[in-house]
Amino acid sequence: MRLLLPIRAKLDGERVQALLRQFAGTDQAREKAHQQLLRIGKSAVQPLVGELKNPNRWVRWEAVRALQQVADPSTANALADSLEDIDFDVRWVAAQTLAALQHDGLIALLRNLSDRTTARGSERRLTTYFATNLIKNC
Fold first, then answer.
1. How many structural domains does the chain have?
2. Residue 7 to residue 76: CA distance in whole angstroms
3. With contact defined as beta carbons under 8 Å apart, do 49 and 76 qualify?
């Protein structure tokens, strides 16, 4: 049984990549791929995160929409980066997803904001430290 795990992981990875390619297709193809990726679950999360940098706005939008439904806290930092996407719809869904992640989403958002300030490094670290501790104590 253990010998089959690497084979299954490879097949899942190939299936995920094939489904992600469908995000660039028609509305029906995107929706079908979206639903199948949700059924795959956790093994689709990192490939979906990778698609947040895809040049095609539909691919990025479908990826962030799928991540919203997966609701995996490990995606919070990538979603916070998507708040600066050129496409408003991608930014909107990324913001909704961060809000749904609650604590993890807020921490990622604050880190993202503090990294983008013009303050010196020590001031950014202090801002992040105090904001993170404030949230933890709420």
1. 2
2. 30
3. no
Report how far residue 124's alpha carbon sits from residue 15's, in angstroms, rounded to the nearest whole number. 41
Domain of residue 97 covers: 4-101
Residues 129 and 64 in one domain: no
pTM score, two decimals? 0.73
| Same-domain status, 79 and 108 | no
Count of all residues that appear for the chain in the document: 138
CB neighbours of 44 closer than 8 A, spacing ≥ 6? 16, 19, 37, 38, 66, 70
Task: List the chain pLDDT tens, one digit each, 138 residues.
Answer: 454 444 344 556 788 899 989 888 888 988 998 899 888 888 899 999 999 999 999 999 999 999 999 989 999 999 989 988 999 999 999 988 888 888 888 888 777 776 665 555 555 565 566 556 556 655
- Looking at the fold, whether 87 and 41 belong to one and the same domain comes out as yes
Integer CA distances (angstroms), 70 to 14, 26, 67, 101, 132, in order: 20, 22, 5, 10, 24
Question: What is the rounded distance in angstroms from the CA atom of residue 29 to the CA atom of residue 62?
Answer: 11
